[in-house]
Design a protein that fits this description.
The protein is 38% helix and 21% strand. With 484 residues, the protein is of the alpha/beta class. The chain has two domains: 137 residues, Urease, subunit C, domain 1 (Roll); 292 residues, TIM Barrel. It is globular. It starts with a helix and ends with a strand. The protein binds xanthine (XAN). This is Guanine deaminase.
Length: 484
């Protein structure tokens, strides 16, 4: 090839060479110290994943793939460093972009008081699109920096401000479901809509999102139907929203069974229904691609109903601790066959980080173990059972593999997107993080010589932060790189 042809040739594929970590399933975490992931930069999809045994073999496979993809001028090779690894991008299945401004404050109140004291007054300010854009710009940049490649956003009731959020997410290249919030009852005068307004404005928002997609390939941004929760949505509004979800084939998100006082109040609003979950079922809001946040206090019958309708759950442990809502039990949700992802639930949760959500999920699972130990000790049936870290197969700590699964593939399953996202299977979108355990400015993660990869991953989960996320990719495109 002449030199001028070489210069003109376009790079069509990128190969990542080094340690690759991904959940093959809930029960299998693959950690491959010598592996290659190949990405077609046109489609942003993974075209090959090769698992090797040593560096020499990796070099030979790089050469073979380079020939297959048209030669060195068409292939860019990224060699990961000794403490770097590739991880699927994080999926935050429940986050209020509009609450970013007061995250980290107001945790002395339970849910319903917190909503009326902090949340509704702040969200009412989003009537001003300029104010909204300022908050959304900071929020989206932060979530991306922390490795969230896919976010399921609540915005507010204000359509123009919701459109501003969509524009920001689109410009920054993140994948997202974005929801205009619906509220037509039990809300302050300054932050409420009529039923008709709420439906009309939701349709205007949906048309805006669907009409403005400029990404090549399937859209990165999807409008999501977002009744805030039963307490703030009348039956006609819920029914109307279910109709919009049908008409536009859209996903749905809401809150379910977060706090005991909320459950009691909600059920009192609908004596015609058997339970909180049954209210959503009755008004048509439970289906595949519905995501219900929290599910802290459901009865078994409710979990069976969620499973029957194919609903996914956003587990939001930081929020459940911060608002003292209770502790959702992930293993119980799994036993009922539910798909579960993680939610930061900013600002109920006090961190924008899915790594933090993994840590809190670990603690939440341990609370169930501690509770059972405590009950056993109180019964005097189990003197000394604190010497074990498990009660039985159903009450055990979450492993590092399970935590990484919740943060990635579990979220994709809850969204009904597991054929496209969540790990590095060939054909899926390359939504990925280049993680670095030894960036120059992160003294917290200390590695001993010859630290095993299993230990390195645990340290990433329990000590890591945004400084350990070097690059962020969505559909093969780099959307963030650290300056340091
Ligand atoms: O954690 C929560 N955050 C909210 O904004 C909200 N609204 C209803 N229920 C809610 N729960």
């Amino acid at each position: 090839m002449a030199k001028s042809d070489l210069l003109a040739a376009e790079v069509t594929h990128r190969l990542f060479v080094g340690c690759v970590v991904h959940p093959a399933s809930r029960t299998q975490l693959d950690v491959d110290p010598y592996a290659i992931v190949a990405v077609d930069l046109q489609s942003g999809c993974i075209t090959a994943r090769e698992v090797l045994t040593n560096e020499a073999e990796a070099a030979a496979v790089v050469t073979g793939l380079t020939i297959r993809y048209g030669g060195p001028a068409r292939v860019s090779v990224t060699q990961l460093g000794p403490h770097q690894f590739l991880l699927p991008g994080f999926i935050d299945t429940h986050v209020h972009a509009s609450q970013f401004g007061y995250m980290g404050s107001g945790y002395d109140l339970p849910l319903l008081d917190w909503l009326s004291t902090h949340t509704f007054p702040e969200e009412a300010r989003f009537a001003d699109p300029a104010y909204a854009a300022g908050v959304y710009e900071a929020a989206v940049a932060t979530y991306i920096r922390y490795g969230t490649t896919t976010a399921v956003y609540f915005a507010t009731i204000h359509t123009d401000s919701c459109c501003a959020l969509v524009d920001i997410v689109r410009r920054r290249g993140q994948r997202a479901w974005v929801g205009k919030v619906n509220m037509d009852r039990n809300s302050p005068d300054t932050y409420v809509e009529t039923t008709e307004e709420s439906l009309r404005e939701t349709e205007r928002f949906v048309e805006y999102v669907l009409g403005n997609d400029q990404a090549s390939g399937p859209p990165l941004i999807t409008p999501v139907i977002t009744p805030r929760f039963v307490g703030s949505c009348s039956a006609p509004l819920m029914q109307g929203l279910a109709g919009l979800a049908d008409r536009y084939d859209l996903p749905i998100q809401s809150h379910l069974s977060e706090n005991r006082a909320e459950v009691t109040w909600t059920e009192s609003l609908h004596p015609e229904c058997a339970s909180y979950t049954d209210i959503y079922a009755t008004y048509g809001l439970l289906r595949p691609r519905s995501i219900m946040a929290h599910c802290v206090h459901p009865q078994d019958t409710e979990l069976r109903q969620l499973q029957k309708h194919g609903v996914g759950v956003a587990h939001c442990p930081n929020s459940n601790f911060s608002l003292i809502s209770g502790v959702a039990d992930v293993r119980r949700l799994w036993r009922h066959g539910l798909a579960v992802g993680l939610g930061t639930d900013v600002a109920g949760g006090c961190s924008p980080s899915v790594i933090d959500a993994m840590r809190h999920a670990s603690l939440a699972a341990k609370v169930h173990i501690i509770k059972q130990h405590q009950e056993a000790v109180d019964d005097e049936a189990c003197a000394g059972c604190n010497t074990k870290n498990t009660i039985n197969d159903e009450v055990t700590p979450l492993t590092a593999g399970e935590l990484l699964y919740l943060a990635t593939l579990g979220g994709a399953e809850a969204m009904g997107l597991a054929t496209e996202l969540g790990n590095f299977d060939v054909g899926k979108s390359f939504d990925a993080l280049v993680c670095d355990l030894q960036p120059r400015d992160s003294p917290v993660v200390h590695l001993r010589p010859d630290e095993a990869w299993a230990t390195k991953l645990e340290k990433f989960i329990f000590l890591g932060d945004d400084r350990n996320i070097r690059q962020v990719f969505v559909r093969g495109r780099k959307i963030h790189a650290r300056g340091v």
